[in-house]
Design brief:
24% helix; two-stranded antiparallel sheet; 6-stranded antiparallel sheet; 3 helices; 12 strands
């Protein structure tokens, strides 16, 4: 493999904008809790091993000014920003976590998962992931918090609480009127 050569599928599924609108419509109509989590440095939290296909080795040169001999390169042991397959790798890492925690894919989007109520989490939860930004719906705040605690124990990130902004759009919610704009 040579520098600049195409290597593996770089496609990373992300929810279409209609999926976000559908989820927000559900939150408004059913008065669901609607929260978000943001992953910090998301790509390095993924693992090459989660990809279904074998990934070739990736190497990078040290940055300019780095005190290193000429010709030295470093092997990338984790996905990094700028490597096209990194977002795909993160998606599969998220998918493994979600499936390990009894979530199933929604059937309408690759990056939307649903966990139906059970003894551990007694209320249904729906989560979408747009690379490192998540949108989480649940009818019960305690159940949602248990899931977010588990999610953020695995992935370093921040609990953004109730959604006021999502993918660059301001979100205004009037729970009394049952609207989200």
């Amino acid at each position: 493999m040579k520098q600049g050569e195409s290597y593996v599928d770089a496609f990373a599924p992300v929810p279409r904008s209609t999926a976000g609108r559908v989820m927000m419509s559900l939150a408004a109509a059913l008065d669901l809790e609607m929260h978000a989590c943001d992953l910090s440095q998301a790509f390095i939290q993924a693992s090459w091993a989660d990809l279904p296909e074998k990934v070739p080795q990736f190497f990078i040169r040290p940055p300019q000014g780095w005190d290193e001999e000429d010709g030295v390169v470093y092997e990338c042991c984790r996905p990094l920003y700028g490597i096209p397959v990194s977002a795909r790798c993160l998606h599969y890492t998220l998918d493994h976590f979600m499936r390990d925690n009894k979530f199933v894919k929604s059937g309408f989007e690759e990056s939307v998962w649903i966990q139906y109520a059970d003894e551990e989490l007694p209320h249904t939860i729906m989560m979408s992931a747009h690379i490192d930004d998540t949108l989480i719906l649940c009818e019960n705040l305690t159940t949602m918090q248990k899931f977010k605690d588990k999610f953020l124990a695995r992935f370093e990130g921040t609990d953004e609480g109730e959604v006021t902004e999502y993918l660059g759009c301001d979100i205004l919610r009037d729970r009394a009127a049952g609207t989200i704009t």
